[in-house]
Amino acid sequence: MFFGLTNLPATFQWMMNDIFKDLISEGKVTIYLDDILIFMEDLEEHRCILFLKAKKCEFEVLETEYLGVIISKGQVRMDPIKLAGIAEWPTPTKKELQSFLGFTNFYRKFIKNYSKVVRALTQLTGNAEWTWGTAQNQAFQQLKKQMAEDVILTILNRTGQFRVEADASNGAIGAVLKHKRRIAEKDRILYYDNHVYVPHHTALRGEIIAQSHDHITAGHPGVAKTRELVLHEYWWPKMKKDIETYVAGCKICQRTKSSNQAKAAPLYLNTIPMEPWTHISVDMITRLPDLNGHNALLVIVNRFLKAIILIPCNIELSAEG
User: Which of 238, 239, 189 is nearest to 209 (CA)?
Assistant: First the structure.
């Protein structure tokens, strides 16, 4: 194709989409002009008389840079090379602010509450009077801080369950599509449902429970409250049982807390009868199958002889029981 034509990029993009439409629909190829990202397991034969320049190609890689992001197995993150120097970005002029917001907008999907964070800055990009105050500086610093964080996004798994989280305010609206992952890893730390997964280390688990139970601001709470405090950050299997054992063995709780459990009624010895039929026990057996008009038994026990008398009877239950 000739260089310099106004519609050349759109025409070239259309041609590429048409040639690779089958692979694109199958989710095996992504194309932006002459940047082609192929993610498949098998090497296929070259077709359509298109040629590749070897020094610009990467084959069978586990991680690659594509359109400003780093793509690896199941993950996408911002390119650290593109973000180099973001923390030292000086206070901008109006023109520089427009460039800065254009740059950050490209990575907005990596920044939580992006619209809300940049609201004070976007108000200065129009015809409004330029006023760089505390709100604008705080938004600028907050945006730089979030840009410097190593945020990782998960590549869509179409077979899993999705969760949509949406929020709105007077100045911003947003939504995010999430996959619920039971166990994940970040910075060499395992997470279970956003809680740090504590390995099977008795002393370490005991220390974590102690921080939530024995701390001066905790006040030695019970099992339920201690578990709630631990779950703010941590999780491990059979955690409730470990907390119950720890709280039950807390010396301070044993000395200072009174039991809130109802006391059992005292037990008394039954009087031993000296002759038959001076003492009997009576009980009912109900909900028996009907037989000759009877559906229950009156049970009488002679406590002296241990003899049992069964008397058939009929019990009719009303709506009140």
Answer: 239
